[in-house]
Amino acid sequence: MKERNTTSTLKRILVNCSSQAKEYGGCVAKKVPEVERDMCLKEFLALKNCMQNVCLTSVFCYIKNFSMSANASSSQLTVGLSGSGGLSHAYVQYPPLKCNLPGSRGLYYDDANKLLLSPTSDQVFSWKTVPFSPHVAATADYINEGPVLSIRYSLDAKSIAVHRSNQEIQFFQRETRETFTHMCKSESESILGFFWTDCPVCDLVVVKTSGLDLLTVSFTSKSVNLVETKKLSVNWYVYTHGSRLVLLASGMQCKTLTGFQLSSVGIVRLPRFEMVMAKSDANSKPVLAAEDVFIITVYGRIYCLQIDRVAMQLHSYRFYRDAVVQQGSLPMFSSKISVSVVDNVLLVHQVDARVSILYDIFEDSRAPISAPLPLLLRGLPQSHTGRPVNVGESLDRNSSNHELMFYGDDWTFLVPDLICDVASKSVWKIHLDLEVISSSSSEVPSNLEFLQRRKLEASKTKQLCLAITRAFILERRPVTMVAKAIDVLVSSYSHSVKTCSNLKETKVDEASASVGTNASNSSRSAKDESRVGVGDKSFNLSASDSDDQSREIDSRDLQKSGKENLLGAESSRGEVQSSSLHTQQLGLGNNQLNANNSERQDSQLTSPAISPDEMYSCVFVPVGEEIVGDPSYLVAIIVEFLRSTNSEKIKVRPNIYVFTIQLLVRYERFAELSLLIINKVLEPSKEVAMQLLESGHQNPQMRKLALDMLRQLSLHHDYVTLLVQDGCYLEALRYARKHKVTSVRPSLFLEAALASKDSQHLAAVLRFFSDFIAGFRNTPEYQDYFRILNEMNTGLAV
Questions:
Q1: What segment(s) does the record annotate as region Disordered (predicted)?
Q2: pLDDT category of residue 766 using cuts at 50, 70 and 90
Q3: What would the pLDDT profile of 44-90 be if each residue is shown by its tens digit?
Q4: What are phi and psi of 218, to 5 degrees?
């Protein structure tokens, strides 16, 4: 069966990718025999993407057929639970945040303040979603009765704006409950929506069918003042506060888009661009809807994703200062698509097929991380875990409301990582199961690269990386493969040290964004942008506060022109204080709420980077305890680790050198140990020298190497002491005189000379210290040994 499936997949590849294979083969044939790196790279990547899409389609068809067979015996798809054998790369945790209030008129999400809002006839209730907690208490504010099309709190949390109709927006001051209304001046235009902004020229942006109105709001005069109007025809718009980017659609097919970015440092108008839309026939003109466009921020870079239902593809666009560039397309296996972003991982939800596909687009790769799988439900009470729960089945049989319907029609995916179930008035948060994701691939270096780019649950991610590395070594994989994995970890740690991301600090997500440099730099690979993937170094519309690198690059790039000088790395700084005020006034907790930050920014997290000390204590020592027999393999791995740390200029503590010596001495591998010492693979230190001395009982060469190391390190006191212990006290005296070593006790030399029973040696030692140490003749120590010397001389005379 497996051979038949493999042959079938290979046939599909040959049929579907014949043109790409022909182009690649032709390119290679032209350049052979001159072979060079990245030869025919463009053609190769096209062939690779085609083959991956064919393989992904095969996997998807298998899952779809399996689901259909399951539906034949059951009217609903079964959802696996934790403890019932379920497996998925992403999951939601039970219980959800319940927002089911009497008289509720719907749920609205305020992405600027990370609040879930539920208006009633005369109040609006708000729940804090950062940090996400199913037990968070709601806060109420009074509003007037009336229709609600949308509702948002201001960034300073002092007022509320309610979109009442296509002509009216009503404002409420929370403290005084004062209210006033803003109306469209012309009946020929309609209000499509609005959003608050931290732009220095305005407080509020109203999107109308005739363009954008930039407004200032004053409760003192109860007025809204027009600052500027951006005139253009608008059919619909898409906006996210995290990117500060608004896209305005125009044209008969709504596929012509104009973008404006309004951040705390100014306003930038992006170039107009058209989205790609396939036609089912020559005369068809498909119309693009707002629900088919998503703005996401991944690794500090702002993308726009567009659904093409005819081509069944999800097109990706990336924003640059002077252009909007299409980055490629992802396959669609469902007519209904939604997206989420969890810890910089893109989740494409194939809603009709009830599966989600994960992508890590750090290197602009269009290959999925793993096979399509449905979301998993975890954390159900024990009473529910005795059997699987079906899609659409109520978890609470005493309730008429459906608490959970996986991929149901009432599901709304809120970017970046929330799911709103409108029917049950519940909100779920999406989590990644990094352990399952990493176990789905055997490419350990790639797995570690992926894990090291994750910032949520950094402690768990670090432990997972350590466990993978230990297992990789214990399986005795080739040293070259293990070396690649180690290089990934060392490079990640080096980068985290340079950017101080390993220290506890408040992290900034894909929030405040600023315009990067020109699209001409887009040919640079993602590896050139960042060593580990914590930001965008040199170009695009990017989240400027996502890391220190972005701040440095933005501040340098934005010195190029007067207008660009407005756009820098401060696009989120002005909001920290106001958002904190919002949190305090709403009474949603004592933690600071940054309007720029997603959920993880309210908790202080550390980097998953692994330090050399952690590699020693959590990898090398445990592996050394389990390995039986010849230690050469583990020593070779440690040497590769030392090579990698040396190339990154990372200081390694002596404990790992001492451990290596112990391994080699245990199995009497003195020749290899001598080479490591002589070639300074094991760096000289007092701890290393002392370990060599301890090994010198079995091999005199080790003791000699230890003494030489102490002398090279100018550890004169230790060197002299060891010479005396070896009985070479006269040589020790000469060394002490030459290097002026005064810290060694004279009694140590005198006792050694006395033990030799040679009166001349004892006399020489006494004479040395009498000349070398002022006042030594007056010490009791001198008197005692001088008396002993006289007794020895008297005995010899008799």
A1: 508-563, 588-609
A2: confident
A3: 877 877 776 776 665 555 445 544 443 443 333 333 333 334 678 99
A4: -125, 115
- The answer to whether the CB of 195 falls within 8 A of the CB of 241 is yes
Q: Which helix (H) or strand (E) holds 79?
A: strand 78-79
Question: Which residues lie across from 246 on neighbouring strands?
Answer: 239, 260
Local structure of residue 730 (DSSP, 8 states): H
Residues 6+ away with beta carbon under 8 Å from 55: 9, 13
612 to 41, 469, 486, 490: CA distances (angstroms): 36, 13, 11, 8
Mean model confidence pLDDT for the chain: 79
- Residue 454 Rama label (left phi>0; alpha psi -120 to 50; beta): beta
Q: Hey, what amino acid is at 742?
A: T
DSSP string, 294-337: EEEEETTEEEEEEEETTTTEEEEEEE-SS-EEEEEEEE--SSSE
| CA gap 183, 201 in Å, rounded | 21
pLDDT at 14 over 90: no
Tokens 């170039």 locate to 271
What confidence category does residue 792 fall into, taking pLDDT thresholds of 50, 70 and 90?
confident
Choose among 466, 465, 457, 407: nearest CA to 432: 457
Higher-confidence residue: 237 or 588?
237
N residues, the chain = 798
Owner of token pair 């933005």: 554
Could you tell me if 99 and 127 are in contact, meaning their C-beta atoms sit under 8 angstroms apart?
yes
Q: Which of 371, 374, 378, 333 is nearest to 76 (CA)?
A: 374
Euclidean distance between CA atoms 693 and 699, whole angstroms: 9
* Residue at token pair 């393989």: 55
The confidence score (pLDDT) of residue 56 equals 61
The predicted-structure confidence for 447-505, as pLDDT tens digits, reads as follows 999 999 999 889 999 999 999 999 999 999 999 999 999 999 999 999 999 887 544 44
What is the spatial distance between Cα 244 and Cα 261, in angstroms, rounded to a whole number?
Answer: 5
Distance CA 27, CA 42 (A): 10
Is residue 767 classed as helix, strand or coil in its secondary structure?
helix
Do 307 and 339 touch, CB atoms closer than 8 A? no
Distance CA 701, CA 707 (A): 10
Q: Residue 157: helix, strand or coil by DSSP?
A: coil
Q: How far apart are CA 647 and CA 171, in angstroms?
A: 60
Q: What is the pLDDT of residues 302-346, one digit of tens each?
A: 999 999 999 999 999 999 878 899 998 999 988 899 999 999 999
Distance of CA 103 to the CA centre of its chain: 41
- Maximal C-alpha separation, the chain: 133
